[in-house]
Amino acid sequence: MTIGERLTELRKSRGLSQEELAEQLTLTRQTISKWELGQSSPDIEYVIALCDLFGVSTDYLLKGEEPEAKAAPKEEHSQPVPKGPRSAEREKNWMIFGLGMAVSSLAFLVIAFFVIMSVVHPWVTYKSGKTYTGLAGYLLGTGSLPWFIGAAVLLLGGLAVAVFGIVRKPRRAE
């Protein structure tokens, strides 16, 4: 069966004349007639429009192939598809990035806590003949300087780990 014969069959099954089909596609009746007689073939945009209009697949209209039954549903206990080496490597890189960002975020919160506390509870500290005020005065006066330095180191280290996780090149299998 040709495209023209299938088109004629579909048109007649819908009770349409060549004129009515031509109007719906904004074409002439002669164009529809040429398609049905096999003297010419519809352009791809009209093939798609015809398939939509008649509710058939392009395979059916062009090749006459009936749509196959849908594939059987997957078994519930099927094994997951294993990830490729590049996908696993990429996932590992994102995990490293996430870890670095988590550590950096926590360290940033600790530093922000000390800055806020130094504003809310200002300290003036005298040490070795020098006067310290603001954040330095608070850190020295409360003995929090080691915690602040540790948080700063963690912040920088976390950012370095995060950047390393993103820019790291996957290893090549040899």
Can you characterise this structure?
The protein is mainly alpha-helical and 174 residues long. It has 2 domains: 3-63, lambda repressor-like DNA-binding domains (434 Repressor (Amino-terminal Domain)); 85-167. Helices cover 64% and strands 5% of the residues. Strands 1-2 form a two-stranded antiparallel sheet. Strand 1 (124-127) and strand 2 (130-133) form a beta hairpin. The longest helix has 36 residues, at 85-120. The radius of gyration is 37 Å and the shape is rod-shaped. The mean pLDDT is 84.
Overall structural class, as computed from helix and strand content, comes to: mainly alpha
Low-confidence stretches: none
Q: Given the structure, what is the number of helices?
A: 8
Largest sheet: 2 strands, antiparallel
Order of strands across the main sheet: 1-2
Annotation, overall tally of beta strands: 2
For the terminal residues, how far apart are their CA atoms?
Answer: 55 Å
Percent in strands: under 5%
Per-chain topology:
Blueprint: H1 3-13, H2 18-24, H3 29-37, H4 44-54, H5 58-63, H6 85-120, E1 124-127, E2 130-133, H7 134-142, H8 145-167
Antiparallel strand pairs: 1-2
Helix pairs in contact: 1-3, 2-3, 6-7, 6-8
